[in-house]
Amino acid sequence: MYKQTILHKLQLSVLPELNDGRRQLMQGQTLKASAVLVPIFSFNDQLCIVLTQRQGFLRHHANQISFPGGKKDPTDKTLADTALRETFEEIGVDINAVSIINKLSEIQTPSGFSITPYTGFIAEHAQFKLNYQEVRHLVYLPLEVLLQQTDWACYSVKIKNRYHQVYAFQYNEHFIWGATAAILKQLSMILK
């Protein structure tokens, strides 16, 4: 798939709603605003989604595959600013090297976060500098592999004494699940 085709489809997309049970919140639950960048980057002559594998010693989500992102800080004017700031903090990509394309549908997590994903192209000249306090390494998921993905497993996971349905799939040795898989599924639905 070519960059121009992806850009066109994302800009004109009608956002799909995922029926994965995440929108059923516990009564009185307040969600923490957060954002991630779904970075698209040309790697080895193919367009890829850049994912991170989190460090194993982290208290939350250790070893998980995720997007660069996190909780909104008071200094962030918008959630897009949050996604760009977190991308710089985690993988060292300068915010000026990212071209935001669009915003995907919000994902609400059982752990109490409202995640707003933003897609964006990373310039080919961009430099990556990992923050090894958070990120073990980068995972480059080719867009063609994502578009061929048909085996979206759905698991029941117990979090905070409640069962939640989460998407998951295997890419090489990486097990991608939860909010990351839900965002990738949403992206694949738009691009197909």
TrEMBL record:
Keyword tags: Hydrolase, Magnesium, Manganese, Metal-binding
Cofactors required: Mn(2+); Mg(2+)
Keyword Hydrolase: yes
Signal peptide: none
Highest taxon listed in the record's lineage: Bacteria
Chain segments annotated as coiled-coil in the UniProt record: none
Domain Nudix hydrolase, residue spans: 31-163
CDD domains: NUDIX_CoAse_Nudt7
Name of the protein in its database record: CoA pyrophosphatase
Organism field: Catenovulum sediminis
Organism classification: Bacteria, Pseudomonadati, Pseudomonadota, Gammaproteobacteria, Alteromonadales
